[in-house]
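Lecture notes, structural biology module. Today: joint structure prediction for complexes of four components.
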Amino acid sequence: MTRILFFGRVAERLGANCRLDLPAGGATMGEIRNLVAARDEVAAAALLRVDVRGSLDQVVVGEDTLARPDQEIAFFSIFSGG
Amino acid sequence: MTRILFFGRVAERLGANCRLDLPAGGATMGEIRNLVAARDEVAAAALLRVDVRGSLDQVVVGEDTLARPDQEIAFFSIFSGG
Amino acid sequence: MALDVRLATETLSAPSELERFLSGRTGDGAVVTFTGLARGVGKDGSTIESLTLDWYPGMTERSMVDIAEAAAARFPVSDLAVVHRCGDIVPGETIVFVAAAAPHRRVAFEAADYLMDRLKTEAAFWKRETGPAGTRWIEPVDEDRAALARWKDETP
Amino acid sequence: MALDVRLATETLSAPSELERFLSGRTGDGAVVTFTGLARGVGKDGSTIESLTLDWYPGMTERSMVDIAEAAAARFPVSDLAVVHRCGDIVPGETIVFVAAAAPHRRVAFEAADYLMDRLKTEAAFWKRETGPAGTRWIEPVDEDRAALARWKDETP
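The predicted structure, tokenised, for the full assembly:
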């Protein structure tokens, strides 16, 4: 099971993280987002928003980027800035 | 006797001040400058320069301003700034 | 050239940071600092009881380092410091302290200004204010985006 | 609105001044400071042993107050501080400390920048540097005059 981290408004709705069973070959960030969003309405409302971004190993990446199960995956609302 | 104050390069040459016998009705700043400069070559070299300014009661004034014997009169090189 | 970039989970003292930054400094004439304080009143006049800055350990620090490195590459500064609070902050506490040292004061001013414009929009924090009416999330305002856009015209 | 303008005949501590300026502040989000340090090396690479700032008691303070009042009239700041050393200063010591507080950071930056540009050219001090080769007087350089000229285009 791969841990998916949440921050900002996403974490407010879904908590700090969830676990997901990713295929060994990985999945794209868009696919992962959809997998988590498919769990229930709260997850869908929190994740299926244009202002939610994803990061892989702490670098913000696009929807088509492939994520492997051993990488650090996160989703979050856009930064507030400092 | 009225005390004339010096600052900056003028003070370096002439010391912190000198005393001058001003007419009771006063004199213009230009006249005072010339009176002090007339004392000797060092005073002339220190005062008869375009970059020397005068002040009356701590306000920078022009050559034609009348200074009375009871006012605070000073001559100095232009400010270095802070 | 030193970049001192830190995330502070406890109280941040701007005077202590300035003291540390100035210590032993004799080569540079100019040091500019910016201190950002938590306000007790919101833009709409409402009371703010506390400000919370959530962060992503690792990524948040990296976002701060990226911004400091960009400033160092862009301006001929001698040293930069960026210290940012995270977690719960009460009004009057310091949220951010930035310092720039340079031989020339214009460079020090511009580097501090640039650091703040980028931090206010691009640093990886999620902010929310808590007041009597509850909690609300804060996002960069148009003013912040406009401030940042000032630097885009020029080549880095 | 407070203007804190002082001439310091003894050591000036920028961190202590910042602490004093920040004390009790909860209304303003932004505080910008400038600290000017005495350098140990002149522009021509020569060693500077000490810097001396001569002043005209009364007139020098007034020149500082005039500049602070002009800044306060020009920018919507909450408070300003201007503290300037006079007398003999050794390399590494602080010559000048300026602070500006405002609700908006752009205003705080501009007010501090303006204060420094005017102080560097118009404050009533006479400066000389002493090194192995003797003493030489310092006057505002073209760079200082150009910096000051930036503010003349705009209406005060």
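Point to remember: The longest helix of chain C spans residues 105-122.
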